[in-house]
Amino acid sequence: MRYVSTRGQAPALSFEEVVLTGLANDGGLYVPESLPHFSAEALADMAGLSYAEIAFRVMQPFVNGEIDDDTFHGLVTDAYATFNHDAVLPLKQLDANHFLLEQFHGPTLAFKDVALQLLGRLLDHFLKKRNERAVIMGATSGDTGSAAIEGCRHCDNLDIFILHPHNRVSEVQRRQMTTVVANNVFNVAIEGNFDDAQAMVKQSFANQDFLNGSRLVAVNSINWARIMAQIVYYVAAGVALGAPHREVSFSVPSANFGNVFAGYMAHRMGLPVKQFIIATNANDILHRTLTANDFSKRELAATLAPSMDIVVSSNFERLLFDAYERDGDAVAALLERFQTEPTALADAPLAKLRAKFSSFSVDDATILEVIREAHHRTGEILDPHTATGYRAAERARADQSTPMVTLATAHPAKFAEAVVKAGFQGVPLPTHMDDLLDREERYSVLPATLEAVQQFVVDNRR
Length: 462
Ligand SMILES: *Cc1c(COP(=O)(O)O)cnc(C)c1O
Description:
five-stranded parallel β-sheet, 18 helices, alpha/beta, 462 residues, 13 strands, 15% strand, binds pyridoxal-5'-phosphate, 43% helix
């Protein structure tokens, strides 16, 4: 299996190359040239298997023999053994036909662990094989940084530098990064905002000369391996609820569109899915595009669901590539226009999207209302991201007879501000991290200049 760019100009890559490469050199994102297909029989055979076993079966075709089966099986098993629940991602029933898929039992209590626990292991495997070392640089305003650090802390051939805006991430989120003591983990607090940190990472990727030939690796959701790892839980949840004999629907709290896009891939690979609901907070570009064909940027709003605060949904490009019948030139033209002016999708691709996707946008006041209401009706305290999905599932649902799965993307203890604002006393951290607020922190504060940051990387990488 080869991987091609959504903008049609970059060279096709192998699986190994695509894991080690971020953005394609034509500015596009890599996607598989063709998708594996699971027959009804193959899906039925997965019923009752462990999460790790389903993960191996779903991802093995993408790996394309570039890692031998035993080794890949071992990587997958190790990755999901870090989760604190025997089901890895348990399904919980909310009412007769509405379920929560709890994605927050990993080391950092949010769904990004599902992909990053595997990605760290894949990177380390390929780098060892090539006898190379690499540097990871990322900027975070929240969940991605800690999940990347947890995913890479045991990787011998990787050094990881995560930039966060000084004094501008929540204490729990900061501590999840800065209390990880490992000699390949470097936390940098930038005296600036998230955009400053992000800009420095982007500039470092654009010109890597400062690293003198070492490779810089991206772990944000433009990395195909992250999408691949997320396909698994759609299949696992679908099969648990009766696929292939029954359709399932999903409601997905969305930002960069990596999570729900993985669901779409599962559907294209044979999982019968009735409807995908894209839930957004007030940053509603996806909702505006789907409902009003308004594909344009708006100013960033800071909401109670901060991990969904985005202006642009980077992975939406992967869906556009599909909707535009894999016409890379058309996708490139659309996205170039989008950079500078409000745009709209052509009729045919928009109709194609609307056939499978619905959307719903939830503002902050409603998030609080939903947290209270869901607790009253089910006893569950939802985190603010999951609350958007819960409301969207109820309001945008096409039919009641198809099981609805709302993805619970974070543990409520991680986003105490919203939970407290909703009138609760807060939620305790799970026992394995109840000493988080007492652990020693380690991070460096640097001025918001590219020189300072790059010098820090050069001085500290091993
Ligand atoms: C990252 C994140 C999201 C958004 O996921 P995308 O793949 O970017 O759409 C939603 N909820 C939480 C808690 C997250 O960390």
